[in-house]
Structure formats: C-alpha cells, structure tokens
Amino acid sequence: MKLALRRFCVPATVLLALVVAGCPAGHAQESLSAVPGQIAAAMYVQQWSQILWGLVTTQTGTEIPSFGEPVFDPDGSVTQTFTAADGTEVVLTLLPDGSARLDITYADGTTQTVIQSVPRFDGVSVTTIHWSVTSSDGLSVEYTSIVDDRDTIFDESDDITQLLGSSVLPEGITQEFDVLSADGLTEVHSSQSDGSIFTLAVPLAFPDFALPDLSQSASGTYIGLGVSVQFMLTPTPKYPTRWAALLADLGDGMTGTFSLNSDFSGFGQLTESSPWGERLVALISWTQDGDTHVYLLSGQDRHMGPAGASLDYLEHRWQTLTALLAPAPGVGLNAGRPGRPRRAPRLRTGPLGPSRTLRGALGPASRLGTQRGPGQRTLP
C-alpha cells in the first residue's frame, strides 16, 4: 500500500474550484462506489478504538464520575455504586469466589447486565474467564478472555491477552471477533454476518504495552461487498500524540487522504491516479455518527452512509466500567495464581484516575449501545 501524508492547508474556495474543474461527472459517479466502504472502515476504527482503549472519550474530554462507599456484605461480597457524569448509574458486585456482576442503568432507562465467571487458572501461567453481556434493548455479547502472564507475575509487559467471542445486534446481525495483544502489538479481526471483514493492527506503548502508542502509525483493512480498503492511521506534525490522519488505498488508483478529528469524525479528499496524473474525484466529510456528505465534481452535495453493518456496530459498541475507570486491556477481576497481585478495583471513593488498578476488572463488560457521553471509557 503506497500512501503519502498530505497537507490540509488549501483554502476551501480553492478546493471547491478544483472539484468543479475536475474529471467528468459520470466517471466521478462511478468512483463514488468506494465511499461507503471507506466510511465503514472509519466507523470500525472508532468502534474498536473505543471498545479497547476508550480513545473517543479520552480524546474529547472526560468528567470525573462520583463513587459511593463500598458495602461489605455478610456473605463476603462487596458492592459499590458509581454515577457517571451523564447520569449513568452502575452497581458493581464482587463475589468471594472471584466472579462479579455489573448492573448498569443508563440515563435513557436502558439497562445492561454483565456477568463475569469465576477465573480459571491452569496452575502455570494462563487465566481464562468467560463474560456474558445482556441489554434491555436486545443486544448481547459472549466472549472468553485468555491471559498468559508468561510466568512473570509482576511484569505485565510480556503478557499475551486474547479475547474470543461474538456479539449479536437486536436485528440478528452477528459479529465474530478475535483480539490478540502480544509483543507490543494489538491485532483485531472481526467478521460480520453481512459478509464484511475488518482488521486493525495497533502498536502498544512502552514499557507496559497496555495502551496504544498513538505517536506511531496503525494499519488495517476493510473488505465488504465489492470493495477492499487498506488504510493507515497516523499522527501529524500538528497532532503528534493522536491519530490525526486517515490514509486509504481503495484500489484501481483510488486513494483517500483525510484529517481525523479527536472524536473520529473526518474530512478530506478522494483522488484517482492515472497515466496522466492525479485528479480530484470528490471531497468527503463525515460526523462521529457516520453521517457522510460527498461534494461531487459537479458541485452537488451527495448524502451517503457507511457500508454494511458498520454503523450498527458503532451505535452498539461496548461500554465498560473497566474502561471508564482505568482504560487498559487485560484479564478479569481475581485473575491470577495464588500469590499473584489481585487485579481487582481498589474500592474507594473518588476517581481512580488513569492507573491500571482496574486492569481487567469486569473486562469488556459492555453496553452494546450508543456512547453515553463524557465519563465513559471502554476497554476489554
């Protein structure tokens, strides 16, 4: 994939003039068939970036949630409540056997229940946990987290974490996913029942390799009906600490060069290369919710949407307590061998901040639903 980062300093009036003076409208119309696949790739990037690391929330600002006092019940369980800035109420119950339950009530009245099984340790280095997520609006997720600590219980940098599972939308569309974090890299592979496939490879930040290194480029693919998109996410000189550009190769000489905002909305241009040079096909912009406008060579404004189920899965992405309090990938709540530091929440009042204290506590315990505003980070 041959991609080059381009500048976005051309005045809008000049760009519009270029659009009007571009190639024939009929040819441009044919080229626009690649746009829904391009936007689908952007939607899946946003979905998984929020699920795994809470990037949308982190980059657009977060308000501090409020915490209730922990309650130590006679049966040995511990219960604590918290309220997010948007009014979401959460009850976390930690049971003596290491299992847990998360009951979430969102501001719109939607509820979600997350069940974490008792962690199973193989006696050497591997911990396995099953997760079940159900929502009152018909969404569900089932997956297993498998973590190999490589027999270095005090060093998480060499851990191998894998999430294997599936999710089901209310309309019946399914998504099979496999997320592997190892050797400083997280790789995402999801296959949807609409026939589309999405992949993403993200370098992780030294030294813990728990969060993405946004100063490095990430890459991925989206394959859908009649379209194959290879893309790169990269920082820019103006924004060196986040992905600020999305560069795409759509095949047949078509490339996309886009600015990426902190909320994962974007804008830029679609161009086509030929033996006679490169010509502008269209200007494209999209919102965080996937609302897409294409400015055609004729000067018309075409309203379009992403391909396949990408928008549905963006709207129903997971929202987790773990990511809200400490966005870092990992295992589950009492994961670990005897003597291994307990990876459970520090039950306390006040914010836990960006530390790893909740690493894996209620791992992608999710809200398969629309993002609920500030104060929510999502993560396995």
Notable characteristics:
380 residues; mainly beta; 21-stranded antiparallel beta sheet; 6 helices; 21 strands; disordered N terminus; disordered C terminus
Describe this structure in words.
The chain is mostly beta strands and 380 residues long. Helix content is 14%, strand content 36%. It is built from six helices and 21 strands. The chain has helices at 12-20, 25-31, 35-53, 55-60, 310-315, 321-325, and strands spanning 66-67, 71-72, 78-83, 89-94, 100-105, 111-116, 120-121, 126-135, 140-148, 160-168, 174-182, 185-192, 197-203, 218-224, 227-234, 245-251, 254-260, 266-274, 277-286, 292-295, 301-304. The chain has a 21-stranded antiparallel beta sheet that branches. The radius of gyration is 22 Å and the shape is globular. Mean pLDDT is 78; it is low at 1-28 and 325-380.
Report, as a whole number of angstroms, the end-to-end distance.
30 Å
- As a percent range, the share of strand residues is 35-45%
Quaternary organisation of the protein chains: single chain
Largest sheet: 21 strands, antiparallel
Instruction: Count every beta strand, where a strand is a DSSP E run of 2 or more residues.
Output: 21
Give unreliable regions as ranges: 1-28, 325-380
Shape verdict: globular
N-to-C SSE series? HHHHEEEEEEEEEEEEEEEEEEEEEHH
* Mean pLDDT across every amino acid position: 78
Helix count, DSSP H or I runs of 4 or more residues: 6
Query: Which radius of gyration do the C-alpha atoms yield?
Result: 22 Å
Binned, the helix content reads 10-25%
**Helix-and-strand structural type:** mainly beta
